[in-house]
Amino acid sequence: MLTRLAPAKINLFLHVTGRFDDGYHELQTAYHLIDWCDEIEFELTSDGTISRGRAIEGVEEANDITVIAARKLRSRFPGSQGVIIRCRKQIPIGAGLGGGSSDAATTLLALNELWGLGAELNKLAEIGLELGADVPVFIFGKNAWAEGKGEILSSVSISKQLYLVVFPGFSVSTARIFEAFHGTSYTEKIAYEPFFTGNMVNDLEEITCTLYPEVRTLIDFLKNWGLTRMTGSGSAAFIPIQSRELGESIIAELPTTWVGRVCLGQSS
């Protein structure tokens, strides 16, 4: 039995800078990993089957990213043992926090260890990219500056920071957001330095707020306490805070359908 934590991320900014021939958008972003985590258990079996031992509300086993990741890894390394995967889901689905991508990456890393495959991180990241553009950053497990579809990663120096992260109780469709964004103007690429001088905007925020007005309600609410940004393609938003006490006091004022959490972003 092996248990691993799968952390969430926030996007400190997200710029859409173009569109590739395959339809995917070209991005620039900075990932900050935070301590809002799913917990995943992996139990080896001798019968060779890959299955999950815990249901996730709204997610069929055939669509479970951990099961898909495990099967994809074994297709590259035939003969591996079976495994039962149990994910205690804590990161909200469809919130822009990367929970599914982190679960996939954690599965690849854990099974690489349990199955004794010896695959290098670059190889696991290559497999992970087939599952989602955010997966590689979780494979390497570090804060990162990202370009391309989000998979071209560079190291970035980010200090520890407390955030209040709030999920408004509903998921957002990433595909719908990018489809609606298609045809709007793109942001000019920025260099590394301007990122640290205040150019920290999420280009998807406006279209997301148009399609999902409650996201705008959430952002406007949090603005009472500081600079607020949506993460990823939504629906969650976050603000940097100076103390856990402040975060908990804000959480006490949230509507009952919203979920707030004080999170620590790791240093790098």
Supply database-style keywords.
268 residues; alpha+beta; Ribosomal Protein S5, domain 2; Alpha-Beta Plaits; six-stranded mixed sheet; 9 helices; 10 strands; 30% helix; 29% strand
CATH class of the largest domain: Alpha Beta
Task: Name the shape in a single word.
Answer: globular
- The radius of gyration over CA amounts to 18 Å
What percent of residues adopt helix (DSSP H or I)? 25-40%
| Helix and strand pattern | EEEHEHHHEEEHHHHEEHE
Largest sheet: 6 strands, mixed
Total domain count: 2
So how many helices? Answer: 9
Structural class: alpha+beta
**On the 0-100 scale, what is the average pLDDT?**
93
What are the segments in which pLDDT stays under 50 over at least 5 consecutive residues?
Answer: none
Tell me the β content: 25-35%
Tell me about this structure.
The protein is an alpha+beta fold and 268 residues long. The chain has 2 domains: 2-155, Ribosomal Protein S5, domain 2 (2-Layer Sandwich), CATH 3.30.230.10; 161-265, Alpha-Beta Plaits. The protein is built from 9 helices and 10 strands. Strands 1, 2, 3, 4, 5 and 6 form a 6-stranded mixed beta sheet that branches. A 4-stranded antiparallel beta sheet has the order 8-9-7-10, with helices on one face. A hairpin with a 5-residue loop joins strand 1 and strand 2. Helix 1 (65-76) runs parallel beside helix 2, helix 2 (99-114) packs across helix 3 and helix 7 (205-211) crosses helix 8. The protein is globular. The relative contact order is 0.19. The mean pLDDT is 93.
